[in-house]
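P.,

For your records, the input lines for the assembly:
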Amino acid sequence: MSAAVIVGVLAAGGTYLILQRGIVRIALGFVLLGHAATTLLIAAGGVGTRAVPFAGAGADAADPLPQAFALTAIVIAFGITAFLLALAFRSRDVQGDDDLEDGR
Amino acid sequence: MSELLILVLAVPLTAGATGVLLRHRRRLQRALAWVTLGGVVAISLLLVGATSDGSTLTVDVGGFPAGLAIVLGVDALSALLLTIGSTMTLVGVVFAAASGEDDHPLFLPLVLLLWSGVALAFVTADLFNLFVAFEVMLVASYVLLTLRGGGAQVRAGVLYVGTNLLASTAFLLGVGLVYGRLGTVNLAAVSTAVPDDPAALAGMGVLLVAVVAKASLVPLHGWLPRAYVHASPTVTAIFSALLTKAGVYVLYRLTSTFLHDVDGFLPAMLVVAAVTMVVGVLGAVGGGDMRGILTFHMVSQVGYLVLPLGVWTRGAVAAGLFYLLQYVAVKGALFLSAAAVIRSEGTDRLDRLGGLLRTRPWLGVAFLLPALALAGIPPTSGFLGKYLLIRTAFEAQAYVAGATAVGVSLLTLLSMIKIFNGAFWGDRPGADADGRAPTGTPVGTTARRVLVGMPLGIGVAALVLGPAAAPLLDVVGAAADALLDPTAYLTAVAR
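C-alpha coordinates returned:
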Protein backbone atom coordinates (compact mmCIF):
# COMPACT_ATOMS: atom_id res chain seq x y z
CA MET A 1 0.00 0.00 0.00
CA SER A 2 2.77 2.45 0.95
CA ALA A 3 4.59 1.58 -2.29
CA ALA A 4 1.46 2.36 -4.27
CA VAL A 5 1.09 5.75 -2.56
CA ILE A 6 4.76 6.58 -3.19
CA VAL A 7 4.45 5.66 -6.89
CA GLY A 8 1.27 7.71 -7.20
CA VAL A 9 2.68 10.84 -5.56
CA LEU A 10 5.95 10.65 -7.53
CA ALA A 11 4.10 10.12 -10.83
CA ALA A 12 1.74 13.03 -10.12
CA GLY A 13 4.60 15.39 -9.25
CA GLY A 14 6.62 14.25 -12.26
CA THR A 15 3.69 14.69 -14.62
CA TYR A 16 3.11 18.22 -13.33
CA LEU A 17 6.76 19.16 -13.80
CA ILE A 18 7.20 17.78 -17.33
CA LEU A 19 4.27 19.92 -18.46
CA GLN A 20 6.24 23.08 -17.57
CA ARG A 21 8.23 25.08 -20.12
CA GLY A 22 11.62 25.33 -18.46
CA ILE A 23 14.04 22.54 -19.41
CA VAL A 24 15.37 22.22 -15.84
CA ARG A 25 11.82 21.67 -14.54
CA ILE A 26 11.23 19.06 -17.25
CA ALA A 27 14.46 17.32 -16.21
CA LEU A 28 13.36 17.31 -12.55
CA GLY A 29 9.97 15.95 -13.64
CA PHE A 30 11.67 13.04 -15.35
CA VAL A 31 13.76 12.42 -12.21
CA LEU A 32 10.51 12.02 -10.24
CA LEU A 33 8.93 9.81 -12.93
CA GLY A 34 12.10 7.69 -12.96
CA HIS A 35 11.84 7.23 -9.19
CA ALA A 36 8.20 6.23 -9.59
CA ALA A 37 9.18 3.56 -12.12
CA THR A 38 12.03 2.33 -9.90
CA THR A 39 9.75 2.05 -6.88
CA LEU A 40 7.23 0.14 -8.96
CA LEU A 41 9.94 -2.29 -10.13
CA ILE A 42 11.04 -2.93 -6.54
CA ALA A 43 7.42 -3.38 -5.46
CA ALA A 44 6.95 -5.86 -8.33
CA GLY A 45 9.42 -8.18 -6.61
CA GLY A 46 7.42 -8.04 -3.37
CA VAL A 47 8.18 -5.68 -0.50
CA GLY A 48 7.60 -8.28 2.22
CA THR A 49 10.84 -10.24 1.78
CA ARG A 50 13.93 -8.12 2.21
CA ALA A 51 16.87 -10.28 3.30
CA VAL A 52 20.05 -10.41 1.22
CA PRO A 53 19.62 -12.77 -1.74
CA PHE A 54 22.23 -15.42 -2.75
CA ALA A 55 24.54 -15.07 0.30
CA GLY A 56 23.18 -17.65 2.73
CA ALA A 57 19.68 -16.91 1.51
CA GLY A 58 16.80 -18.05 3.66
CA ALA A 59 13.08 -18.10 3.01
CA ASP A 60 12.79 -14.31 3.34
CA ALA A 61 15.46 -13.54 0.71
CA ALA A 62 14.45 -10.70 -1.58
CA ASP A 63 13.88 -11.33 -5.29
CA PRO A 64 17.20 -10.24 -6.88
CA LEU A 65 15.91 -9.66 -10.42
CA PRO A 66 13.80 -6.51 -9.78
CA GLN A 67 16.72 -5.06 -7.83
CA ALA A 68 18.94 -5.57 -10.87
CA PHE A 69 16.23 -3.98 -13.04
CA ALA A 70 15.97 -1.01 -10.70
CA LEU A 71 19.74 -0.49 -10.63
CA THR A 72 19.88 -0.52 -14.42
CA ALA A 73 16.96 1.88 -14.66
CA ILE A 74 18.53 4.27 -12.12
CA VAL A 75 21.82 4.37 -14.06
CA ILE A 76 20.03 5.07 -17.34
CA ALA A 77 17.83 7.76 -15.76
CA PHE A 78 20.90 9.39 -14.23
CA GLY A 79 22.65 9.58 -17.60
CA ILE A 80 19.64 11.03 -19.35
CA THR A 81 19.08 13.59 -16.57
CA ALA A 82 22.66 14.74 -17.07
CA PHE A 83 22.00 15.05 -20.81
CA LEU A 84 18.81 17.06 -20.26
CA LEU A 85 20.66 19.42 -17.94
CA ALA A 86 23.38 19.80 -20.58
CA LEU A 87 20.63 20.74 -23.05
CA ALA A 88 19.34 23.34 -20.58
CA PHE A 89 22.85 24.74 -20.26
CA ARG A 90 23.23 24.85 -24.05
CA SER A 91 19.83 26.51 -24.32
CA ARG A 92 20.99 29.26 -21.98
CA ASP A 93 24.03 29.74 -24.24
CA VAL A 94 22.10 30.04 -27.49
CA GLN A 95 18.97 31.86 -26.35
CA GLY A 96 19.68 33.28 -22.92
CA ASP A 97 17.34 31.10 -20.83
CA ASP A 98 16.08 27.53 -20.65
CA ASP A 99 12.51 28.40 -21.61
CA LEU A 100 11.05 26.45 -24.52
CA GLU A 101 9.62 29.04 -26.85
CA ASP A 102 6.69 28.18 -29.06
CA GLY A 103 8.81 27.04 -31.99
CA ARG A 104 7.37 26.12 -35.32
CA MET B 1 27.14 -20.45 -35.36
CA SER B 2 24.89 -19.04 -32.63
CA GLU B 3 27.89 -17.37 -30.98
CA LEU B 4 28.06 -15.17 -34.07
CA LEU B 5 24.91 -13.34 -33.11
CA ILE B 6 26.47 -11.67 -30.10
CA LEU B 7 29.09 -10.16 -32.41
CA VAL B 8 26.53 -7.98 -34.24
CA LEU B 9 26.17 -5.86 -31.10
CA ALA B 10 29.34 -6.53 -29.08
CA VAL B 11 31.79 -5.59 -31.84
CA PRO B 12 30.12 -2.25 -32.74
CA LEU B 13 29.86 -1.41 -29.03
CA THR B 14 33.58 -2.05 -28.55
CA ALA B 15 34.43 -0.24 -31.77
CA GLY B 16 32.32 2.73 -30.66
CA ALA B 17 34.19 2.97 -27.36
CA THR B 18 37.51 2.62 -29.18
CA GLY B 19 36.36 5.30 -31.62
CA VAL B 20 36.00 7.78 -28.76
CA LEU B 21 39.63 7.11 -27.82
CA LEU B 22 40.64 7.58 -31.46
CA ARG B 23 38.80 10.89 -31.80
CA HIS B 24 42.01 12.71 -32.76
CA ARG B 25 43.02 10.08 -35.32
CA ARG B 26 40.21 10.61 -37.75
CA ARG B 27 41.30 8.31 -40.59
CA LEU B 28 41.81 5.43 -38.19
CA GLN B 29 38.43 6.11 -36.55
CA ARG B 30 36.75 6.13 -39.95
CA ALA B 31 38.45 2.91 -41.06
CA LEU B 32 37.43 1.23 -37.78
CA ALA B 33 33.79 2.25 -38.17
CA TRP B 34 33.57 1.16 -41.81
CA VAL B 35 35.27 -2.20 -41.24
CA THR B 36 33.11 -2.87 -38.18
CA LEU B 37 29.87 -2.13 -39.98
CA GLY B 38 31.02 -4.09 -43.04
CA GLY B 39 31.69 -7.05 -40.77
CA VAL B 40 28.26 -6.70 -39.18
CA VAL B 41 26.64 -6.78 -42.63
CA ALA B 42 28.55 -9.98 -43.44
CA ILE B 43 27.58 -11.65 -40.15
CA SER B 44 23.96 -10.60 -40.62
CA LEU B 45 23.92 -12.22 -44.06
CA LEU B 46 25.34 -15.41 -42.52
CA LEU B 47 22.54 -15.29 -39.94
CA VAL B 48 19.93 -14.91 -42.71
CA GLY B 49 21.34 -18.07 -44.30
CA ALA B 50 21.36 -19.95 -40.99
CA THR B 51 17.77 -19.03 -40.08
CA SER B 52 16.12 -19.35 -43.50
CA ASP B 53 14.99 -22.91 -42.67
CA GLY B 54 12.83 -21.58 -39.81
CA SER B 55 15.30 -22.35 -37.05
CA THR B 56 16.18 -19.96 -34.22
CA LEU B 57 19.71 -19.40 -32.97
CA THR B 58 20.00 -18.54 -29.29
CA VAL B 59 22.74 -17.64 -26.83
CA ASP B 60 22.60 -17.11 -23.05
CA VAL B 61 24.73 -14.07 -22.34
CA GLY B 62 27.18 -14.64 -19.52
CA GLY B 63 26.11 -18.24 -18.94
CA PHE B 64 23.92 -17.42 -15.93
CA PRO B 65 21.45 -20.09 -14.75
CA ALA B 66 17.98 -20.33 -16.28
CA GLY B 67 15.71 -17.54 -15.08
CA LEU B 68 18.55 -15.08 -14.65
CA ALA B 69 20.29 -15.44 -18.02
CA ILE B 70 19.58 -12.86 -20.68
CA VAL B 71 18.49 -14.76 -23.75
CA LEU B 72 19.29 -13.50 -27.24
CA GLY B 73 17.53 -15.20 -30.12
CA VAL B 74 17.66 -14.68 -33.87
CA ASP B 75 15.07 -15.99 -36.25
CA ALA B 76 14.53 -15.07 -39.90
CA LEU B 77 12.74 -11.79 -39.05
CA SER B 78 15.57 -10.61 -36.79
CA ALA B 79 18.24 -11.66 -39.28
CA LEU B 80 16.57 -9.82 -42.18
CA LEU B 81 16.20 -6.63 -40.14
CA LEU B 82 19.82 -6.88 -38.93
CA THR B 83 20.92 -7.14 -42.56
CA ILE B 84 18.99 -4.19 -43.95
CA GLY B 85 19.66 -2.04 -40.85
CA SER B 86 23.41 -2.61 -40.84
CA THR B 87 23.61 -2.11 -44.60
CA MET B 88 21.87 1.26 -44.40
CA THR B 89 24.04 2.30 -41.44
CA LEU B 90 27.14 1.49 -43.48
CA VAL B 91 25.74 3.46 -46.42
CA GLY B 92 25.03 6.34 -44.04
CA VAL B 93 28.55 6.56 -42.60
CA VAL B 94 30.17 6.36 -46.05
CA PHE B 95 27.83 9.12 -47.23
CA ALA B 96 28.66 11.16 -44.12
CA ALA B 97 32.34 10.98 -45.03
CA ALA B 98 31.57 12.51 -48.43
CA SER B 99 29.25 15.17 -47.04
CA GLY B 100 31.68 16.08 -44.26
CA GLU B 101 29.25 15.29 -41.44
CA ASP B 102 31.56 12.76 -39.81
CA ASP B 103 33.95 15.63 -39.07
CA HIS B 104 32.54 15.78 -35.56
CA PRO B 105 34.81 13.53 -33.49
CA LEU B 106 31.86 11.81 -31.81
CA PHE B 107 29.72 11.20 -34.91
CA LEU B 108 31.05 7.74 -35.81
CA PRO B 109 31.23 6.41 -32.21
CA LEU B 110 27.63 7.54 -31.68
CA VAL B 111 26.44 5.86 -34.87
CA LEU B 112 28.11 2.63 -33.72
CA LEU B 113 26.44 2.94 -30.30
CA LEU B 114 23.10 3.62 -31.99
CA TRP B 115 23.53 0.49 -34.08
CA SER B 116 24.43 -1.62 -31.00
CA GLY B 117 21.17 -0.60 -29.35
CA VAL B 118 19.13 -1.31 -32.47
CA ALA B 119 20.84 -4.69 -32.94
CA LEU B 120 20.13 -5.60 -29.31
CA ALA B 121 16.46 -4.68 -29.80
CA PHE B 122 16.33 -6.96 -32.86
CA VAL B 123 17.82 -9.99 -31.09
CA THR B 124 16.69 -9.83 -27.46
CA ALA B 125 14.04 -12.19 -26.14
CA ASP B 126 13.60 -10.51 -22.79
CA LEU B 127 11.34 -7.53 -22.11
CA PHE B 128 13.62 -5.75 -19.66
CA ASN B 129 16.58 -6.20 -21.96
CA LEU B 130 14.42 -4.70 -24.70
CA PHE B 131 14.04 -1.61 -22.50
CA VAL B 132 17.82 -1.42 -22.17
CA ALA B 133 18.18 -1.80 -25.95
CA PHE B 134 15.76 1.05 -26.58
CA GLU B 135 17.64 3.23 -24.11
CA VAL B 136 21.07 2.53 -25.64
CA MET B 137 19.67 3.38 -29.05
CA LEU B 138 17.82 6.49 -27.84
CA VAL B 139 20.71 7.91 -25.81
CA ALA B 140 22.90 7.74 -28.92
CA SER B 141 20.14 9.32 -31.00
CA TYR B 142 19.59 12.14 -28.45
CA VAL B 143 23.21 13.18 -28.81
CA LEU B 144 23.30 12.71 -32.61
CA LEU B 145 20.19 14.88 -32.99
CA THR B 146 21.61 17.74 -30.95
CA LEU B 147 25.21 17.38 -32.17
CA ARG B 148 25.15 20.71 -34.01
CA GLY B 149 23.92 22.42 -30.86
CA GLY B 150 21.98 25.34 -32.39
CA GLY B 151 18.78 26.77 -30.95
CA ALA B 152 16.58 24.70 -33.28
CA GLN B 153 18.44 21.52 -32.28
CA VAL B 154 17.99 22.29 -28.58
CA ARG B 155 14.24 22.82 -28.96
CA ALA B 156 13.85 19.75 -31.18
CA GLY B 157 16.09 17.85 -28.77
CA VAL B 158 13.93 18.60 -25.74
CA LEU B 159 10.78 17.58 -27.64
CA TYR B 160 12.45 14.39 -28.89
CA VAL B 161 14.09 13.46 -25.59
CA GLY B 162 10.95 14.33 -23.63
CA THR B 163 8.61 12.26 -25.77
CA ASN B 164 10.89 9.27 -25.94
CA LEU B 165 11.77 9.45 -22.26
CA LEU B 166 8.08 9.48 -21.37
CA ALA B 167 7.54 6.47 -23.65
CA SER B 168 10.52 4.71 -22.07
CA THR B 169 9.14 5.36 -18.58
CA ALA B 170 5.81 3.87 -19.67
CA PHE B 171 7.73 0.90 -21.08
CA LEU B 172 9.54 0.43 -17.78
CA LEU B 173 6.27 0.67 -15.82
CA GLY B 174 4.80 -1.96 -18.16
CA VAL B 175 7.78 -4.25 -17.56
CA GLY B 176 7.38 -3.77 -13.81
CA LEU B 177 3.67 -4.56 -13.93
CA VAL B 178 4.21 -7.68 -16.06
CA TYR B 179 6.99 -8.87 -13.76
CA GLY B 180 4.91 -8.21 -10.66
CA ARG B 181 2.14 -10.36 -12.06
CA LEU B 182 4.09 -13.18 -13.74
CA GLY B 183 7.51 -13.17 -12.04
CA THR B 184 9.28 -13.33 -15.39
CA VAL B 185 9.99 -11.09 -18.37
CA ASN B 186 11.20 -13.81 -20.72
CA LEU B 187 9.27 -13.40 -23.95
CA ALA B 188 8.36 -17.08 -24.21
CA ALA B 189 7.03 -17.29 -20.66
CA VAL B 190 5.19 -13.98 -21.00
CA SER B 191 3.64 -15.01 -24.32
CA THR B 192 2.18 -18.21 -22.90
CA ALA B 193 0.86 -16.62 -19.71
CA VAL B 194 -0.42 -13.19 -20.77
CA PRO B 195 -3.45 -14.04 -22.95
CA ASP B 196 -5.17 -15.86 -20.03
CA ASP B 197 -4.34 -13.24 -17.41
CA PRO B 198 -6.21 -9.92 -17.71
CA ALA B 199 -3.99 -8.16 -15.14
CA ALA B 200 -0.79 -9.09 -16.97
CA LEU B 201 -2.46 -8.13 -20.25
CA ALA B 202 -3.12 -4.66 -18.80
CA GLY B 203 0.58 -4.35 -17.92
CA MET B 204 1.42 -5.44 -21.44
CA GLY B 205 -0.93 -2.72 -22.72
CA VAL B 206 1.08 -0.04 -20.88
CA LEU B 207 4.21 -1.44 -22.50
CA LEU B 208 2.51 -1.49 -25.89
CA VAL B 209 1.65 2.22 -25.68
CA ALA B 210 5.37 2.91 -25.40
CA VAL B 211 6.15 0.71 -28.41
CA VAL B 212 3.46 2.46 -30.45
CA ALA B 213 5.01 5.83 -29.56
CA LYS B 214 8.46 4.63 -30.61
CA ALA B 215 7.11 3.30 -33.91
CA SER B 216 5.37 6.71 -34.30
CA LEU B 217 1.90 5.37 -35.01
CA VAL B 218 -1.01 7.83 -34.84
CA PRO B 219 -1.94 9.24 -32.31
CA LEU B 220 1.58 9.13 -30.87
CA HIS B 221 3.38 10.34 -33.99
CA GLY B 222 3.65 14.11 -33.47
CA TRP B 223 7.22 14.15 -32.20
CA LEU B 224 8.81 12.54 -35.25
CA PRO B 225 8.30 15.12 -38.03
CA ARG B 226 9.11 17.97 -35.65
CA ALA B 227 12.33 16.46 -34.35
CA TYR B 228 13.90 14.67 -37.31
CA VAL B 229 14.04 17.68 -39.64
CA HIS B 230 16.42 19.44 -37.27
CA ALA B 231 19.03 16.67 -37.20
CA SER B 232 21.86 16.95 -39.69
CA PRO B 233 20.79 15.48 -43.07
CA THR B 234 22.70 12.18 -42.97
CA VAL B 235 21.66 11.62 -39.36
CA THR B 236 18.03 11.86 -40.47
CA ALA B 237 18.74 9.19 -43.09
CA ILE B 238 20.29 6.86 -40.52
CA PHE B 239 17.46 7.51 -38.01
CA SER B 240 14.87 6.72 -40.67
CA ALA B 241 16.49 3.34 -41.33
CA LEU B 242 16.85 2.32 -37.68
CA LEU B 243 14.76 3.98 -34.99
CA THR B 244 11.09 3.59 -35.86
CA LYS B 245 11.93 0.23 -37.43
CA ALA B 246 12.94 -1.09 -34.02
CA GLY B 247 9.44 -0.19 -32.80
CA VAL B 248 7.86 -1.84 -35.85
CA TYR B 249 9.99 -4.94 -35.23
CA VAL B 250 8.73 -5.21 -31.65
CA LEU B 251 5.14 -4.90 -32.86
CA TYR B 252 5.72 -7.73 -35.36
CA ARG B 253 7.37 -9.86 -32.69
CA LEU B 254 4.67 -9.34 -30.06
CA THR B 255 1.86 -9.85 -32.57
CA SER B 256 3.53 -13.08 -33.67
CA THR B 257 4.05 -14.44 -30.18
CA PHE B 258 0.71 -13.65 -28.54
CA LEU B 259 -1.07 -10.42 -29.51
CA HIS B 260 -2.82 -12.00 -32.52
CA ASP B 261 -4.72 -14.16 -30.02
CA VAL B 262 -5.97 -11.18 -28.02
CA ASP B 263 -9.56 -10.23 -28.80
CA GLY B 264 -9.89 -6.99 -30.71
CA PHE B 265 -6.18 -6.49 -31.40
CA LEU B 266 -6.32 -7.22 -35.14
CA PRO B 267 -9.26 -4.87 -35.93
CA ALA B 268 -7.69 -2.14 -33.77
CA MET B 269 -4.43 -2.51 -35.68
CA LEU B 270 -6.27 -2.15 -39.00
CA VAL B 271 -7.81 1.13 -37.82
CA VAL B 272 -4.49 2.44 -36.48
CA ALA B 273 -2.71 1.49 -39.73
CA ALA B 274 -5.29 3.22 -41.93
CA VAL B 275 -5.42 6.39 -39.81
CA THR B 276 -1.61 6.55 -39.63
CA MET B 277 -1.33 6.32 -43.42
CA VAL B 278 -3.83 9.13 -43.94
CA VAL B 279 -2.57 11.51 -41.24
CA GLY B 280 1.07 11.08 -42.30
CA VAL B 281 0.44 11.64 -45.97
CA LEU B 282 -1.72 14.72 -45.37
CA GLY B 283 1.12 16.26 -43.37
CA ALA B 284 3.51 15.38 -46.18
CA VAL B 285 1.38 16.97 -48.90
CA GLY B 286 1.36 20.20 -46.89
CA GLY B 287 5.15 20.30 -46.33
CA GLY B 288 7.35 22.99 -47.85
CA ASP B 289 10.81 21.47 -47.68
CA MET B 290 12.22 18.14 -48.87
CA ARG B 291 13.01 16.70 -45.46
CA GLY B 292 9.78 18.01 -43.96
CA ILE B 293 7.79 16.12 -46.59
CA LEU B 294 9.93 13.01 -46.26
CA THR B 295 9.66 12.86 -42.46
CA PHE B 296 5.87 13.04 -42.60
CA HIS B 297 6.05 10.18 -45.11
CA MET B 298 7.86 8.15 -42.47
CA VAL B 299 4.71 8.36 -40.35
CA SER B 300 2.52 7.47 -43.32
CA GLN B 301 4.69 4.52 -44.31
CA VAL B 302 4.68 3.06 -40.79
CA GLY B 303 0.94 2.68 -41.43
CA TYR B 304 1.72 0.46 -44.43
CA LEU B 305 4.27 -1.47 -42.38
CA VAL B 306 1.77 -2.35 -39.64
CA LEU B 307 -1.15 -3.04 -42.00
CA PRO B 308 -0.23 -6.78 -42.09
CA LEU B 309 -0.52 -6.88 -38.28
CA GLY B 310 -4.24 -6.19 -38.67
CA VAL B 311 -4.65 -8.82 -41.39
CA TRP B 312 -2.29 -11.50 -40.04
CA THR B 313 -2.32 -14.01 -42.86
CA ARG B 314 0.83 -15.60 -44.26
CA GLY B 315 0.58 -13.64 -47.50
CA ALA B 316 0.07 -10.34 -45.70
CA VAL B 317 3.00 -10.85 -43.33
CA ALA B 318 5.30 -11.88 -46.19
CA ALA B 319 4.16 -8.80 -48.14
CA GLY B 320 4.74 -6.61 -45.08
CA LEU B 321 8.28 -7.92 -44.59
CA PHE B 322 9.11 -7.47 -48.29
CA TYR B 323 7.71 -3.96 -48.15
CA LEU B 324 9.65 -3.20 -44.96
CA LEU B 325 12.99 -4.35 -46.38
CA GLN B 326 12.72 -2.38 -49.62
CA TYR B 327 11.16 0.64 -47.88
CA VAL B 328 14.07 1.05 -45.44
CA ALA B 329 16.48 1.24 -48.39
CA VAL B 330 14.23 3.47 -50.51
CA LYS B 331 13.53 5.94 -47.71
CA GLY B 332 17.22 6.05 -46.86
CA ALA B 333 17.97 6.89 -50.50
CA LEU B 334 15.41 9.71 -50.50
CA PHE B 335 16.92 11.26 -47.37
CA LEU B 336 20.40 10.87 -48.84
CA SER B 337 19.39 12.66 -52.03
CA ALA B 338 17.86 15.43 -49.89
CA ALA B 339 21.15 15.54 -47.94
CA ALA B 340 23.06 15.85 -51.25
CA VAL B 341 20.81 18.77 -52.25
CA ILE B 342 21.38 20.49 -48.88
CA ARG B 343 25.12 19.93 -49.17
CA SER B 344 25.45 21.48 -52.61
CA GLU B 345 22.64 24.07 -52.58
CA GLY B 346 22.61 25.10 -48.92
CA THR B 347 18.87 24.52 -48.40
CA ASP B 348 16.11 22.02 -49.07
CA ARG B 349 13.26 24.54 -49.08
CA LEU B 350 11.26 24.08 -52.23
CA ASP B 351 10.56 27.80 -52.65
CA ARG B 352 14.29 28.48 -52.84
CA LEU B 353 15.22 25.63 -55.14
CA GLY B 354 14.49 24.95 -58.78
CA GLY B 355 16.03 23.84 -62.06
CA LEU B 356 18.35 21.34 -60.40
CA LEU B 357 17.65 18.86 -63.19
CA ARG B 358 19.50 21.15 -65.59
CA THR B 359 22.59 21.60 -63.44
CA ARG B 360 22.62 18.26 -61.61
CA PRO B 361 20.79 15.74 -63.84
CA TRP B 362 22.08 12.64 -62.05
CA LEU B 363 20.97 14.01 -58.70
CA GLY B 364 17.50 14.36 -60.23
CA VAL B 365 17.55 10.70 -61.25
CA ALA B 366 18.90 9.75 -57.82
CA PHE B 367 15.83 11.36 -56.25
CA LEU B 368 13.33 10.25 -58.88
CA LEU B 369 13.98 6.49 -58.76
CA PRO B 370 13.45 6.02 -55.00
CA ALA B 371 10.58 8.54 -55.12
CA LEU B 372 8.79 6.38 -57.69
CA ALA B 373 9.47 3.32 -55.55
CA LEU B 374 8.02 5.08 -52.49
CA ALA B 375 4.88 6.03 -54.40
CA GLY B 376 4.60 2.48 -55.76
CA ILE B 377 4.97 2.99 -59.52
CA PRO B 378 5.68 -0.17 -61.56
CA PRO B 379 8.13 -1.80 -62.06
CA THR B 380 9.85 -0.71 -58.84
CA SER B 381 10.05 -2.81 -55.69
CA GLY B 382 7.67 -0.39 -54.00
CA PHE B 383 4.96 -1.26 -56.51
CA LEU B 384 5.31 -4.97 -55.88
CA GLY B 385 5.31 -4.48 -52.11
CA LYS B 386 2.21 -2.27 -52.13
CA TYR B 387 0.42 -4.52 -54.62
CA LEU B 388 0.97 -7.55 -52.39
CA LEU B 389 0.00 -5.64 -49.24
CA ILE B 390 -3.23 -4.33 -50.73
CA ARG B 391 -4.16 -7.62 -52.41
CA THR B 392 -3.71 -9.59 -49.20
CA ALA B 393 -5.71 -6.99 -47.28
CA PHE B 394 -8.61 -7.32 -49.74
CA GLU B 395 -8.35 -11.12 -49.62
CA ALA B 396 -8.83 -10.93 -45.86
CA GLN B 397 -11.87 -8.67 -46.35
CA ALA B 398 -10.11 -5.63 -44.92
CA TYR B 399 -11.66 -3.50 -47.64
CA VAL B 400 -11.50 -0.09 -45.97
CA ALA B 401 -7.86 -0.41 -44.94
CA GLY B 402 -6.93 -1.76 -48.38
CA ALA B 403 -8.73 1.05 -50.18
CA THR B 404 -7.07 3.60 -47.85
CA ALA B 405 -3.68 2.18 -48.83
CA VAL B 406 -4.55 2.72 -52.51
CA GLY B 407 -5.73 6.30 -51.97
CA VAL B 408 -2.73 7.20 -49.81
CA SER B 409 -0.43 5.97 -52.60
CA LEU B 410 -1.89 8.60 -54.91
CA LEU B 411 -1.25 11.34 -52.35
CA THR B 412 2.28 9.96 -51.87
CA LEU B 413 2.86 10.33 -55.59
CA LEU B 414 1.45 13.86 -55.41
CA SER B 415 3.90 14.93 -52.70
CA MET B 416 6.82 13.33 -54.57
CA ILE B 417 5.80 15.30 -57.67
CA LYS B 418 5.68 18.40 -55.48
CA ILE B 419 9.31 17.90 -54.48
CA PHE B 420 10.33 17.11 -58.05
CA ASN B 421 8.58 20.19 -59.42
CA GLY B 422 9.87 22.45 -56.67
CA ALA B 423 13.49 21.36 -56.59
CA PHE B 424 14.39 19.81 -59.92
CA TRP B 425 12.01 21.26 -62.50
CA GLY B 426 11.52 24.89 -63.58
CA ASP B 427 13.89 27.73 -62.81
CA ARG B 428 15.79 28.61 -59.72
CA PRO B 429 14.31 31.63 -57.95
CA GLY B 430 16.69 34.56 -57.53
CA ALA B 431 17.54 36.22 -54.26
CA ASP B 432 14.71 36.18 -51.72
CA ALA B 433 13.09 39.18 -50.05
CA ASP B 434 16.04 40.02 -47.83
CA GLY B 435 18.43 39.82 -50.77
CA ARG B 436 20.21 36.59 -49.84
CA ALA B 437 20.35 33.58 -52.10
CA PRO B 438 21.21 30.32 -50.33
CA THR B 439 24.54 28.91 -51.33
CA GLY B 440 26.06 25.58 -50.52
CA THR B 441 29.70 24.92 -49.92
CA PRO B 442 31.89 23.65 -52.77
CA VAL B 443 32.09 19.87 -53.01
CA GLY B 444 35.06 17.95 -54.44
CA THR B 445 34.55 15.71 -57.46
CA THR B 446 34.95 12.40 -55.60
CA ALA B 447 32.68 13.52 -52.79
CA ARG B 448 30.10 14.71 -55.30
CA ARG B 449 30.14 11.32 -57.02
CA VAL B 450 29.61 9.55 -53.70
CA LEU B 451 26.81 11.95 -52.71
CA VAL B 452 24.90 11.25 -55.92
CA GLY B 453 26.06 7.68 -56.44
CA MET B 454 24.74 6.25 -53.16
CA PRO B 455 21.07 7.26 -53.53
CA LEU B 456 21.32 6.52 -57.26
CA GLY B 457 22.63 3.01 -56.57
CA ILE B 458 19.81 2.28 -54.14
CA GLY B 459 17.29 3.69 -56.63
CA VAL B 460 18.58 1.39 -59.38
CA ALA B 461 18.48 -1.53 -56.94
CA ALA B 462 14.82 -0.72 -56.16
CA LEU B 463 14.10 -0.64 -59.89
CA VAL B 464 15.76 -4.02 -60.44
CA LEU B 465 14.28 -5.59 -57.31
CA GLY B 466 10.75 -5.11 -58.63
CA PRO B 467 11.00 -7.54 -61.57
CA ALA B 468 13.62 -9.74 -59.85
CA ALA B 469 11.92 -10.13 -56.48
CA ALA B 470 11.42 -13.91 -56.53
CA PRO B 471 14.46 -14.90 -54.39
CA LEU B 472 13.70 -12.26 -51.75
CA LEU B 473 10.02 -13.27 -51.74
CA ASP B 474 11.11 -16.83 -50.90
CA VAL B 475 13.18 -15.57 -47.99
CA VAL B 476 10.42 -13.34 -46.55
CA GLY B 477 7.92 -16.17 -47.11
CA ALA B 478 10.02 -18.40 -44.86
CA ALA B 479 10.22 -15.59 -42.29
CA ALA B 480 6.44 -15.16 -42.45
CA ASP B 481 5.94 -18.90 -41.86
CA ALA B 482 8.10 -18.63 -38.74
CA LEU B 483 6.07 -15.64 -37.51
CA LEU B 484 2.67 -17.24 -38.15
CA ASP B 485 3.73 -20.31 -36.19
CA PRO B 486 6.04 -18.96 -33.46
CA THR B 487 6.36 -22.34 -31.67
CA ALA B 488 9.95 -22.86 -32.83
CA TYR B 489 11.01 -19.37 -31.72
CA LEU B 490 9.23 -19.61 -28.37
CA THR B 491 10.67 -23.06 -27.65
CA ALA B 492 14.16 -21.85 -28.50
CA VAL B 493 14.08 -18.77 -26.26
CA ALA B 494 12.17 -20.36 -23.34
CA ARG B 495 14.26 -20.74 -20.18
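Two observations worth noting. Residues 4-433+442-493 of chain B form one domain. Chain B has a mean pLDDT of 89.

Regards
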